[in-house]
Amino acid sequence: MTRNKKNLSSVLKEVLETVKPSGKELTEINKTVESFLKKIEQNRKNRKINAQVFVGGSFAKKTLIKKDSYDIDIFIRFDKKYKNELLSDMTEKILSGLRAARVHGSRDYFKVHASDNLFFEIVPVKKIRNPKEAENITDLSYSHVNYIKKKIKNEKLLDGIRLAKAFCYANGSYGAESYVQGFSGYGLELLVYHYGSFRGFIKAISKIKPEEKEVIDIEKHHKNKSQILMDLNSAKLKSPIILVDPTYKQRNVLAALSEETFRNFQKICHEFLKKPSKEFFTQKTVNIENIKKNAKSKGYEFILLKATTDKQEGDIAGSKLLKIYKHLVLEANRFFDIKAKGFEYSKGKTARFFFVGKNKKELLISGPRIDQEKHVKRFRIKHKTIFIKNSRLYAKLHLNFTLKQFLQNWKAKNQKKMKDMHITKMEILG
Questions:
Q1: What per-residue string of b and e applies to 273-296 under the rule 16 or more CB within 10 Å gives b?
Q2: CA distance 336 to 401
Q3: DSSP β-bridge partners for residue 358
Q4: Which of 38, 202, 357, 379 has its CB surrounded by the most CB atoms within 10 Å?
Q5: Residues 188-236 pLDDT 10s
Q6: From the CA atom positions of the chain, what is the Rg in Å?
Q7: 181 to each of 238, 363, 405, how far by Cα in Å?
Q8: How far apart (Å, rounded) are the C-alpha atoms in residues 11 and 24?
Q9: Three-state DSSP class for 336?
């Protein structure tokens, strides 16, 4: 075994001890879960509702990683005779007296604060026999839990999944939410199972070329890669990895994974394999002061903003805040060389983002062809410095405003756009 392999093995062994919940923790969580399930079940029986209660997510699949606080998924699986639009209201009745907060979504679910570091998310789903009957993605949860429990019993594989989740979580790539656009928990479980280990997973990821699209069909639902690309909806084929759901051949488990998130994650995989360190499993915090100081030393302008939305915190708020951030990136790139940028969101209604950049000084604007007389006349009135190249007019626009001035001006001119994007406030903090 080479020195690098030995180092990698020792790092993973050390990390596993920190990311794996202790037996005591799991026992305490289990006791609280069991107690809560009894209350739900009793309420369900009292109301004579035909439904099955089951625990899902990482806890049920034994792939939970150690965190400061835990979210445990509990599903109420309703008989198919009940209408889809009634499931959330029926769940609310079952949770009566249990201090459950309703969370709006594609199908409303509920959150219960069980203890200082334990939360339950209670999700209504429909009992289905065929995945095609699913009216919501959560209706597939039951088959997902059963598939993972059936396929992954080996403790080494379970440890590999824990490492993969901790690695992705630390590097901002864990979660299918629209503001993360990363790897879902179920997706990571399948990938580690497919590649055989955490090491196999990150090695395979690091080798995927930009022009390639990795296609994985664990259960061989399709004849070949070409058939998969033909059979799946085009909207589900945009991700860099196509992972066919073993429980539903028409679904790409990693449809939410964006090219940007994947390439950043791939870069981290390269760095970790080159120089293994447990630091790669530690969640990074952006040091704004250091970024600001570094920008100033290199003659760049630093701007920190805070945006607020009126949308529900979580995935909905996060997606709105990410959208305004990406829009500002596009706008700023027209006039500035953006050397660094960042987006920070943590499940509230506000997000922070920063830009480090330098004014381009001059912008070249492409105009009409010289034979388009009306357009040429307008272009000449609008611009002072004009020249002709390849029978087309061009103008040079001299830029003499700062990044801060640009953002202040953009905000003043785009109040309606901000309102349409559900942004209630945008502050320049520094």
A1: eeebeeebbeeeeeebeebbeebe
A2: 10
A3: 337
A4: 202
A5: 999 999 999 999 999 999 999 988 889 999 999 998 888 888 888 777 8
A6: 26
A7: 12, 33, 31
A8: 24
A9: strand
Q: Where are the beta strands (DSSP E) in 67-186?
A: 70-78, 101-103, 109-115, 118-126
CA 333 → CA 147, 167, 383, 400, distances in Å? 46, 31, 21, 15
Sign of the dihedral through C-alpha 218, 224, 230, 235 = positive
The secondary structure element, H or E, covering residue 241 is strand 241-245
For 292-319, what is each residue's pLDDT tens digit?
A: 999 999 999 999 999 999 998 888 899 9
Amino acid at 48: K
Contact 273, 202 (CB under 8 A): yes
* Residue 374, C-beta contacts closer than 8 angstroms, at least 6 positions apart: none
Question: Coil, helix or strand for 63?
Answer: coil
- State mean pLDDT over 321-333: 94
pLDDT tens digits along 340-384: 999 999 888 999 999 999 999 888 889 999 999 899 999 998 888
| Non-local CB neighbours of 381 within 8 Å, separated by 6+ positions | none
Residue 71 confidence (pLDDT): 93
What's the CA gap between 56 and 70, in Å, rounded? 13
Angstrom distance (rounded) from CA 220 to CA 112 = 40
CB of 126 closer than 8 Å to CB of 134: yes
Residues 280/170, Cβ–Cβ less than 8 Å: yes
Q: In angstroms, rounded to a whole number, what is the distance separating the alpha carbons of residues 401 and 49?
A: 65
Query: 3-class SS at 388?
Result: strand
Residue with tokens 């059979």: 231
Q: How many CB atoms lie within 10 A of CB 327?
A: 16
